[in-house]
Amino acid sequence: MKFTHKIMLSPLVTALAFLLIFAMTQRAAERSSETIGRIQDEFYHASELSHKLQIELLTLRHLLTEAATNSNEDALIEAETAAAAFHETINGCRDVPALEAMIAPLGHDFDRYYSQARLATSHMIEQARGLSLDFDQEVFAEVREMNRRYEKLSGEIGIVVDSNNARLELAIASTRARIARLRWVMNITSIVFLVLLFFLSVVVISSIVRPVNRMSRLAQAISGGDLQSELDYRSRDALGELADSIREMQASLISDIARREKAEADLIATQGQMIQSEKMAVLGKLVAGLTHELNTPLGAMASSVDVVDRSRGIIVEKCRGEGSAAEVSADPRFVKAVGAMSNGLSSMSEATGRIEELVNGLKVFSQLDKGEVQQTNVNADLEAALNLIAHDIPDGLEIVREFGPLEDVLAYPAQLNQALFSLVRHAIRDTTPPGTITLSTEQIGETVQVTIADTGCGYQPDALLALFNPSFKADTSRMRMDWEMVTSSRIIERHQGTISAKSDPGVGTRYVVQIPVWPDLGSE
After folding, report:
1. With 80 as the cut, is the pLDDT of residue 98 above it?
2. What is the pLDDT of residues 437-495, one digit of tens each?
3. Are 519 and 498 in contact (CB under 8 A)?
């Protein structure tokens, strides 16, 4: 059986089962409607007519009593109308099958009763007109006969009412029993169909679920990294085609992963080369700057050494002379030589301190005495960057430090220093004196945030979007690729941090760097 046939079989059988159940339910509803209609048309109408007979008989008796008691001939006329209405109701009862057999003797008994009652009432009215306080025995006999016939007629009507009520209850009970039996049959039929449908669905679903489970297990194995698992399900239906597609996808995925791994390896190598290239460029600029910075203290030291040497010669000459110590101390040349030597030594000390400061800054920047991944302090790194780039800071450009207390950050120190150095140098390059560059740091939870804000030229929105993309810039007579900001961005991302920039043209630019204190660098 084909896959599509399996899929369609269960809904088709379900539709047929529910169609059959619907037909049975419809038939039962029609039969119930017929029974209810018959009860309404026959028994309720019969009950209505029988009760109407009772009411009309009571009305007639009341009118006759009113006529006899008050000598009211109008009541006697109304009694004639009530008797006619009673006859009309009896004729209506003859059209009802449930009353036809029982209503036949009522007409004759009513006529006898009404004749007797009218006769007795007429005699009572005549004697009342004669102002007689006592009725004749004959009148009493007529009244007793009238009452006897009334009781008989009333009893017969009561029997009709009770019989009709009993037949109505019997019909209702029969209908209820029939509905209950039909409901039982429908329930049993529905259960049988549902059980059959359940077993059929189990068979169909099992034939679908088993291969789907195999494909699902293969998909889970692939998602878990196991690309060597095999799918052994083969069929000519749609599930078989799906299994073939999964096998093709698995083969394509293996090929794509191999290509991606090669591409990632190439990308890592390229990024490493790019970072190293930019680092060499930064170091080249640092060497040029340090050469200039070192020349000043070295020149001062050379000049101070000459002064100290000449002063030493004068002092030695005076000390070897024949004069006393007091005379030597009072000699102007000796005093001047001692002062010159003191000033020279002081200048040498200052130059040595400046050289030591530059060497320490370079040492912090390059992290030559530390391993690849170490803890480093961002505040110290920024301070070292400022010391190394001091010769590039033009006069009139104010550097504001707003360093907050920070935890040491786990990082690649040399790369992180390179990124911070590039950002500071970029801010200095964009700012024309008089201006201000503000460096601020703060710790937000487990993240260190560095903000570098300048009051420089700023960037247009399109230029700001391309700030961290590779670009070209003029270098003397040549154009070369500018990787500085790109490299800084890649280094920050390598430390699982973020870098963003906001700029207003003519107002300045604000760089915000966020680096976690404990980034996961194990996969690097």
Report:
1. no
2. 999 999 999 999 999 999 988 888 888 877 777 654 544 444 344 567 778 888 888 88
3. no
Alpha-carbon distance 433 to 397, whole Å? 5
Beta-bridge mates of residue 499: 513
What is the per-residue DSSP string for 324-359? Answer: -HHHHHH-HHHHHHHHHHHHHHHHHHHHHHHHHHHH
Query: Given a cut of 50, is residue 195 above it in pLDDT?
Result: yes
Using alpha carbons, select from 65, 69, 119, 108 the residue that is nearest to residue 86.
108
CA distances from residue 183 to 28, 195, 328, 461 in whole angstroms, order as listed: 9, 18, 141, 78
CB 209 within 8 A of CB 3: no
Burial 124-161 (b: 16+ CB within 10 A, else e): bbebeeeeeeeeeeebeebbebbeebbeebbebbeebb
CB burial of residue 384 (10 Å; 0-12, 13-18, 19+): buried
Asked if residue 523 has pLDDT above 70, the reply is no
Tell me the average pLDDT across 64-87.
79
Dump the DSSP string for 465-514: HTTTS-EEEEETTEEEEE-HHHHHHHHHHHTT-EEEEEEETTTEEEEEEE
Give the 3-state secondary structure of residue 418.
helix
Ramachandran region, residue 251 (left: φ > 0; alpha: ψ -120 to 50; beta: rest): alpha
Q: Let me know: does 428 contact 452? Beta carbons within 8 Å.
A: no
Q: What is the CA radius of gyration of the chain?
A: 61
pLDDT tens sequence across 360-383 = 655 555 544 444 788 889 999 898
What is the pTM for the complete model shown? Answer: 0.39
